[in-house]
Amino acid sequence: MFEILFEHINRKISLQEAEMEQLKTFFIPKKYRRKQYVLQQGDPCKYIVFVEKGMLRSYQVDDKGNEHIVQFAPEGWWISDSYSFLTGTPASYDIDVLEEAEVLLITQPAMEEMLQAIPAMERYMRILMQNSLISMQRRIACTLTTQAEERYLGFIAENPHIGQRVPQHMLASFLGMTPETLSRVRKQLLKKS
User: Which residues form the Cyclic nucleotide-binding domain (predicted)?
Assistant: First the structure.
């Protein structure tokens, strides 16, 4: 474990070998089974999760029982309920496991200690936050301004590895459309090609 995390970090910053060894001490390795919850809505979010293997998702369920997926997290991605994690308030999201997973968990106190002990990680976390903000803004704009077909094609172009690993109804939820709309979009695209 830690191989994917170190690859991810090394794409953004450089760490010394001793810093990488020290970094391991701040994380809790854990394995999850498929369909197991990592976080349930209403519980305080105690961890930020890095996915070494498998796939997780974050979502809310509305009053009618419909799931609204806000994030998929395959290998090399981070996932959490950031607001709950930072404030200690009840989580707004459920996070569960779509594929058997091996993850690295970090608590808020361990995160603060890590950032103090390894200053380069402060830059790494800032880069992650900037990328997350950009991604979120792009997703909101896309959802508000594009048609279903364009949203689907954009997602598949940017995330082909995710599109092939999640059921169609979950992909539709993430894209903000019904499964029937997604099915219709896919059929129309097949006819065009």
Answer: 14-123
Residue 193: pLDDT above 80? Answer: no
pTM higher than 0.90 for the full model? yes
Question: Using CA atoms, how far apart are residues 121 and 16, in angstroms rounded to an integer?
Answer: 12
In this predicted model, what pLDDT tens digit does every residue of 136-159 receive, in sequence order?
Answer: 999 999 989 999 999 999 999 999
Distance between CA 43 and CA 143 in Å, rounded? 29
What is the domain-level CATH number for residue 93? 2.60.120.10
Which pair of tokens denotes residue 16? 């010394």
Q: Which residue has 């590895």 as its token pair? A: 161
171: containing domain:
148-193
Same-domain check for residues 88 and 24:
yes
Q: What is the DSSP string of the chain?
A: --HHHHHHHHTT----HHHHHHHHTT-EEEEE-TT-EEE-TTSB---EEEEEEEEEEEEEE-TTS-EEEEEEE-TT-EE--HHHHHH-PBPS-EEEEEEEEEEEEE-HHHHHHHHHH-THHHHHHHHHHHHHHHHHHHHHHHHHHS-HHHHHHHHHHH-HHHHTTS-HHHHHHHHTS-HHHHHHHHHHHHHH-
